Amino acid sequence: MALIRLALPVYVELLTAVVAVGLIDLFWVSGLGGPAVAAVTVATTTEHLALGIVLAVGTGTTIVVGRRDGRRPLTPVIRTAWLLWAVVSLAVTVPGVLAREPLAALFTDDATTAALTADFYLVSLAGLPVFYAQTLTDGIFKGRGDTATPMRVALLCNALVIVLDPLFIYTFGLGVQGAAWATVLARAATLALSLTLLVRRTPREGRQGPNRRDAAEILGAGLPLSGDFLARALVGMAMVGVVGGLGVAALAGYGIGMKIMLAGVMAFYALRQASTIQTARSGEAGPALPYGLLTGLVVGVVLALSARWVTGLFTDDPAVAATATDFLRWMPLYLVPFGGLIAVGGAFQATGRGGRLLAATLAGFAVQLSCAYGLEPLMGATGVWVAMAAGAAVALTLVLAPVPPLRLRAWRARRGSGPRTAPGREPRSTRTAAGRRSGR
Fold it and tell me: Which UniProt keywords apply (predicted)?
């Protein structure tokens, strides 16, 4: 139950800060036509790629703060994390804004959609430092075991977007770009509140500034998850390209289906973050794997049964609705293995086994993309949905494959003693204990 108590606020936070904002943008721009919906789909997919880059800092900070909270001073870690935030923000924002038009052209051959996407990029990519700062602030709170504050801040941001979106899109006549302005301004307002709370609640422990040792520990803890997330974002962009080849209606339908599905997928990421926090702070991973599999089944069934009704909330175009409905009805095959894979990843990350997770993820993506490009000419968009399920199943199978005893002993020796185990690993650890004793 401790895992659930941590995960529920994270789920609400992710649902409102990541998914709901995109859904609100899609809802309001849907009145501008298919190209506007497609543009927001492409632009928000790219934002997920940008989020993956800063996760190396945000998630790494969560893990390191969790390890040190109550044991060692936190001030040096937090200051180091903010220095890394500045470096990453500058490295991503400047090239992104300058290359916004070529970037938009990568995902669609439709000139109108590409132009609208570039307009959205101009504001959204320039506002990435705000998004990154909020991600880091939330990571510090979570490292200290506080998942409620990020949730409350995310709810406030979501409420602001609901108010600002129609104002900027229609009242001010900014169209697609107005959705980007509304999101950035809402995030800036809530970031100011988050920083105020962080300063008040974090004790100042010494004057030590940023240092290389803390930077190495943060990046070492966060880079595997960042790589995993970046790989997912890159494959997501590739999938946008595959579906985009089927036309604007198919791309818009895919975008709507993905945004709807993300409302459920965020439960998997909430379990992952909860498992990361719990494992880093106490060494107890919790039953993340069975929770992830069960959640994937529930989400998949609900989406399949409600597909026609929920897609009707976002579009009146029959072609767009048909693609979105077909997508959601195929998703149970994908969401069950995907839920298990994402949920179990937190314990792997917190115990230093993120490389294994990343390797399995990359292998699954190789299968997914191969199947997508191979099946799309034969089955159309349905072939792309089947490819997603195949890739997730392969990745989960590989990450749960038994670890050879010699490799497991070597891993234990490198990490030293301590209760850092991943979900599903306890039985095997018990079985190999006798072998380790006989080996000594």
Answer: Antiport, Cell membrane, Ion transport, Membrane, Transmembrane, Transmembrane helix, Transport
